[in-house]
Design brief:
This protein is α/β, with parallel strands linked by helices. 28% of the residues lie in helices and 35% in strands. The strands form four sheets. Strands 5-9-10-8 form a four-stranded mixed sheet, with helices on both faces.
Length: 162
Amino acid sequence: LEARKRELVVTREDAPPEIIDLGNVGQVTRVNDTLIRSLIRDGFVPVIAPVGVDDEGHTYNINADSVAGTVAGALRAKRLLMLTDVAGLLDEGTLIQRVRASEIPGLVKDGVIQGGMIPKIECCLSALAEGVDMVTIVDGRVENCILLELLTDRGIGTALTL
């Protein structure tokens, strides 16, 4: 993963923007998909650490969800499964099985999507924008969750599509 340093810009009405140094936190600028494809072609299952390097050799820690979405997009994956510790998107305790990208702003506004789920959803939307057909948020605590998601008619998580 090629990366660059990530900075947080905080804006306030009564003050100029403030740039906050996040240390060694970065964001992906490029995925070396040639290497990944080569490993897959040779029968390996790549395990990708969420660490990127810039042109000067500095390493950066990158949000793992962001890396997953960016790599899936670079590989033109048909589907991305995001394993997490919740059932998926919940509206008053009820699982939302399918949601379109266009519905996300309304769900954020209504408070259905909040807190730590916001960056995960941003990653999902990024992956969809980069060509992934479907991203599904699946509860990794459920035994055989991947099989249940992939091999049953309804799946067990929340599927996001364009």
